[in-house]
Amino acid sequence: MGIESSMSSQEAIHTLSEVVNGRHESEPVEEISPVAVFEDQASPTSDSAPCDASPASPTASNNALANSVSGLPEFDMSYLDGTSQVSDIGEILLDLSASSAADILPSNYDPASSELFPSLFPSISSYPPSLDSTSKLALQFFIDHTTQLILCEKPGISNIWRGVVLQLAHSDELVMDGILAAGSVHMLPNITQDSTMMRQPNSYLSKALKGVKRELEDWRKNDVKTATQTSRLMLVMSLLTIRELLAGNQFGTLDVHLRGIQPIARVLASQYNGKDTEVAANLLELNACLQFISCLRFLGNDKRDLYSLLSMIQEGRLELLKSQETFGTSFGCTLDLLEMLPALHRFYSSRELEISSGRDLGCTSAFRSLLNKISLWQPAPLDFDVSVHRHTGAWWNEVGGYVGDLGKTIWQDAQRPSTATLANQQAMVSSALVYKNVFILFLYSAYLRIPADFHRLSSAVEPYVDESLGYLEEISGGTWANACWWVTIVIGSFTSTVEQRARLQQILQSSTFHVPLVDSGLKLLTSIWEAPERNFGFQGIFNYSELNGSICFG
């Protein structure tokens, strides 16, 4: 999933436009099924099987998994085509019909506090008058649930999806369409069987896609592309990508969304001036993070993701992101580690050639060197600059900011990070350590690849799996668990005992992932756990993707 380095912006945009053209302009928007958007589209991966465009549903393998590990959650995705029996939430809709602006705010929102939502929500005095009751509900689900999954909590940085993005949506219909398309993924399992309500989520997606098509065409034609136009376009395309992620890559079009974003991201980065561009910084980091995660698997002969990643690195976009105050809302403290990923893929290719040719290409030495480098890596947490505090303290003392030891102690206590901040920092570090272990699992899996090495591989990865499960249990239920969705699935693919799989099941049950994305991950794990023992880990994931044509890395 990605964009070939040789593909032009125009070609990439045309790819997404062709997908949108899968809908007929003459059809009423509310009557269009989301499947029609992507039907008859060839897989962009030349070596993989065509994507299955039919809605997913619980399978026998899901049931077998539920029986083997008691309490494992099952997710009925048939509601995505409007056929499911779903719970009645008429009371919620009645409440919404008489709601005020305060009703759409998160339950922990304090108007007197600027820590999370600095002076943004007060400008949203009411729902946009164009929103019906179902759309208001989708907006509420976006605020209360979807926004918690997009960015991680970095102390001192507001969540743009709950702030400035909502402010933009209040006056921008296309941004609102993107928000409703994303929020409806959380809403769908909870709406009634009312036929109009069941069709509206499809309408949001259709309307947003058509709007993006028009904007892409205008953007492509303009010789001078303003930063505002580019940011707006990337924002809506990012919302559609998020929608596809949360839906578990149901239609196999996640790669198309990412491919369409790349030329926009490239132009946006070139326009970036570091001023009043909090949204741009967050969007660029989110996109870059997805590019890295899409490569955290065996790629086989299709290296387009890797080429896209290398192109992004060579263009200097990562250095740009590192210089921003908002940096870390998607990457946390893992970027230095993730930048080793191209080296792991080079090792994978060398080892593959070494095995097939029977020649010694120095892979044993390279394995030891990479293992040592990854093992020595330690995440650098958020830096609370003590020197700045000392300098500020001296200044306060000179102007009488505090008097005596007691006053100084009170001031110093006020400067220390809060307990919540420290806990969040520790969760960020724990999530980075999970990534570190997954990199080691990748390296071992790339090296010990012949059948005779199976038991050596199983023995080598066991302690890393157990340690990672411990870290995942620590951060379960928090926002940093969201950043670990894909590596959680990778760790799960290496589990071999009932106890390990039960722990993983508990992690998923207590997570904030209750969207179809969970179902897609469980289907993948079920396939691996029920397969012969040698079909596990990264190789098992690769085999699954080859068989099914697509996966969702979350």
From TrEMBL:
Location in the cell: Nucleus
The annotated region (Disordered) lies at 1-65
CC annotations in GO? nucleus
Does Nucleus appear among the keywords? yes
Predominantly, its location class is: nucleus
Compositional bias annotation for Low complexity: 42-65
Q: One Pfam family for this entry, by name?
A: Fungal_trans_2
- The residue ranges flagged as biased composition, category Polar residues, are 1-12
Keywords in alphabetical order:
Nucleus
This protein is called Uncharacterized protein
Q: Which organism is it from?
A: Fusarium acutatum
